[in-house]
Sequence to fold (330 residues):
Amino acid sequence: MEKKILSRAVIYLVTVVVICELLSFVIPAESVTVQKNMINAVYTRRDKIESLAFGRSHGGSLDYNIWDKPGKNLSMGGQDIASIKYSLDYLSPELPHLQEVLICISYSSLYFDNEALSSGNLNDARKGLYAAIPSYKLISANDYNNMVFGKLFAFIQADYGFRKLVKAVKDKEEKKSSKQVGDILVDTAKMLQSAKVDAFDHSKDKKLALQYNPQIREQYLNYLKEIALELKARKVRCIFYTPPFYNAYTDNYPPKDIEETERVIADLCKQTGTTYYDFSAYRTMADNMTLYSNADHLNLSGKEQFTKAFKEVLRNGKGPADYPGLKIFK
Fold:
């Protein structure tokens, strides 16, 4: 009897290990661990956190190493508005000293939908978030696959040491190579091509999202309204912003979509008593190619410059007169 129990236990253990190894190809280590580590970093410092930032990869433009309030930038590629609300529903009640939440608005934020992208299949951003947050509430209605895989990997900690080591070495080299702007040789042709490709790819989000959910814009605006009002009730400032983009990216983006985003977020601010800071056309940065890693993402020097400018606007009342091209909506 004891031998049977032991043999079954061994079989079970081996089976679990094999399944995990197979699934590790479906769910890369980074997609599971990045958000989990970021959320854990906030939770373990919950008594000290005063500021949080959210958004897609464009939200990475805000550098919390030089921000003036202790906090964490939780932005990452693939983070949609539904995911931001899901994160805040969990985190904000746990942070007694939270003073502000900054939400990055990209040109396509109102139509970027991870549920549409996954369409019942697995989506890296979603499963990573499910792994990070101890809740069984769905982010959106048809998200069961992502939740199941995310929760599975929340309990299974495989050893990705080698891949982590390789990534750490690579990140160190990238930081070293981009430390001094003067040392960066900007490829003009590559940057202009990036502007066309990225603008086209991001503008496609709208068509895809509307095919999957025709009410996506209204749904997302409701989410943002709920976030703003819930934070306001807790005396937490909600701030919307768009970082600088290289001008060729904006020039290649459908103007109607940019105007729509500006119009509806400005209207949202009027409804909720919040403010939207649009730095996308801030001329000093939008015209300077050396501040970008590609047409719509700032490099380290660009992030530092933008973060300092944003602090001056938020804390010291600077405005469009000081930062030509900046638009402020209240």
In short: The first strand starts at residue 51 and ends at 54. Residues 157-166, 176-184 have pLDDT under 50 and may be disordered.
